[in-house]
Each structure stands twice: as structure tokens, then as C-alpha cells.
Amino acid sequence: MANRSQTPKSVGLQQESDIIARGRAPTSRDPRQPQLPFDPMPDRIEPCLALLAAKPPAGPEWAYEIKWDGYRLAVHVDDGHARILTRGGHDWSHRFPAIARAAVALDAPALILDGEAVVLDDQGRSDFAALQQALGGRGGKRVAGDEVIFYAFDMLYFDGHDITRMALVERRHLLEDLLRDETGTIRLSEEVQAEGADLLRIACQHGLEGIIAKNREAPYRSGRRGDWLKIKCIQSDSFVVFGYEPSSKVRGAIASLLLAAQSEKGLVYVGSVGTGFKGDQVRELRQQLDAMKTERPPYAPRERKLVIARPELVAEIEYRGWTGDRKLRHASFKRLRETADSADVFRLSSPPGNSAEQCSEGGDISVRRAIPAVQSKN
């Protein structure tokens, strides 16, 4: 948690017993003095996004938090009603009624909270698969129950005032005051007092996704500006799924999914993924892709028997690096991304040096993560 000065204790007045303290009678407001204006609550604030970094930044201007693995949400409360928006701007108030009720019950007439909806496992770690199950799976319509927790890590609007122009440390003071005693559905995402490198090491040892570093003095700025950084334990990004290679050993099964990244010339094949699937995911993926069959695009490999589908699904893939011919190394399937989550598709660009990060292998590859996910035409 951020360091904060202690509130001074009240001091009793030493006075004679026969002295009566009286306040001055209130005076009417000078009509020439303007009233403090209120800021209208915005319908939506485009979220601040964390830029991927190879290692944690150091310095007193940086605050650190655990990286949650869930759905990014903005919770709006106004006039006794709550509205819950996904990162992509979809209204999911009906999907998270417990969060909506808890938000209305907070001691604030109007606010906008920025945070993450998660489901925790028995070790206290966020479990995205459990969150998807609570919502009925990808594309499901189930209403989430009380197992979903909303961790708030920022506040953008409070009691009639837009506070996005305030420094993070000031916004956090207001947020901490509001959520100090909250232990139910809505909770405070704590700042951790530690060196960034030490916190990342501990997070990785405990099987967490990674950490987030935030500039304490920065205002809230939409987009990926570098005020927030994400440092992951295992590298993962979102790629377009454009088909699959059928299994040669098991009839009706999938050997691997075909993956593509964005580039200046369009989609580029970056390899395939054949591990990491759970339960019935392979069968469900094959059904989805079979219903989306199309002609072979120019970026698809030619040397194998493949089933090609429209490039409308986006998958998050964990991987260990890149090969020299610009293919993913040791790729593992993590999940399909929801359209409402507005995932960024990994982008290859060249020449290197013009983007946010260089790949660890295949030095001619530079990457940016600011390309909106391919939208379904359905």
C-alpha cells in the first residue's frame, strides 16, 4: 500500500468551565462568488493499458501490484444504479450482478472504478478458466455468482468530479479511503512495498502471471502510453487462429491450431500450437473452425494438409521465444479471447527499433501490441 501520513489526533481545548464555545452564525453565499462546478460523468473512459516490459523499472516513482488474470472492467455508479463495462465497451452489468450490488452499496454517490474481475483458486491466485466457467464458457450467457471478486486498482471519477488528471498517488488515496474495510465482492488491489525485481521473482515462484508497475505521478491516460508496465513470468500474446492441421493419429481430432500475427502487409503465419488444451476445448475448437471454412489465404503454409477458416478467432498463446525464421518457440494454448475483451493482436514490424520491444530471439523481429482484435463478421 502507498505510504500515507498519519491523521493527527484531535486535541481537547483547555478552557474555563464557565466559557461556552459558540460557532458563528452561518452567512449566506455571496451571489458574486461562483459555485464549484461538477463534471458530468462520462459514458465511458477508454482504459489505460499496460505496456509490456522485459524487466521491472526501478525508482521511487514506481508502484507495484500483482497482475490479475481476469476480465478488465469499469464500474460506474450514479444515482443508485451501477453500470459495468468491459475493456471493449460492452455493457456486462447483467453478467456481474453481485459486483453491481456491491458497487451501489459503497459510500459514494457517484464514481467510476477501474479494476479486474477474477475468480480465486484455493491458493488465492486468479484463475481465468474458473472465471470463464462462472460465465458459461467463452461466448456463454451465464450470470456470474458470488465467486467472482472485483479488485479495484484505480478510481477515475468521484462524487461529481473527474479525477483522471490527478496523479496516481492522489487517486489511490481516495480509492484506499473508500475500500479500506471492504473484504467482500469489491476489494482493493493492494500496492506491494518491495523492489520490482524481488516482487517479480516471488510472483513467478508462486505461479502468478506477473506484476504491474505504475508511475505514481502520472495522470490517468487512455491507451498504452508507458505510464503502466506489465512484466510477465511467462511470455504470452494474442494471435489470430485461421485454421487447424487434422490429426494423423486420431480420427476427428486436431493436431495443432494455425496462428498468424499482424504485420505491415497484413496477416503473417507465425507457427502452430498443439499443446495446452483442456477438457473438450479441442472438440469445440474444431466445431467452430469447421463452421468457418474458407479458401486458403496466401499466408497459409502450403506443405501440409490443412483446414483453413476465416481469421475471426483470437487465442492467447504462451511461448518461450522466437526461432530464426520468425516462428513461435514452445507455444502452448492458453485460451480464446472474448470479443468484449478487445484483445490486441500481436504485431510484427520491421525494421526493428521503431517499436516498444525487441523479441528475445530472432533479432530482426520487433513487436507492437496496439492492434485491435480481428472482429467477427457474424
Offer a concise description of the structure.
The chain has 378 residues and is mainly beta. The protein contains 5 helices and 20 strands.
Describe the structure.
This protein is mainly β. It has 2 domains: 51-232, D-amino Acid Aminotransferase, Chain A, domain 1 (2-Layer Sandwich); 236-372, OB fold (Dihydrolipoamide Acetyltransferase, E2P) (Beta Barrel). Helices cover 12% and strands 32% of the residues. The protein is built from 5 helices and 20 strands. The chain has helices at residues 97-104, 128-134, 168-179, 196-205, 281-290, and strands at 51-52, 62-66, 71-78, 81-86, 110-118, 149-158, 161-162, 186-188, 210-215, 228-232, 236-246, 254-263, 266-273, 307-318, 321-322, 328-329, 332-336, 344-349, 357-358, 366-372. Strands 3, 4, 5, 6, 7 and 8 form a 6-stranded mixed sheet that branches. The protein has a 5-stranded antiparallel sheet with strand order 13-12-11-14-17. The longest helix is centred in the middle third of the chain and has 12 residues, at 168-179. It is globular and about 85 Å long. Mean pLDDT is 83; it is low at 1-24 and 351-378.
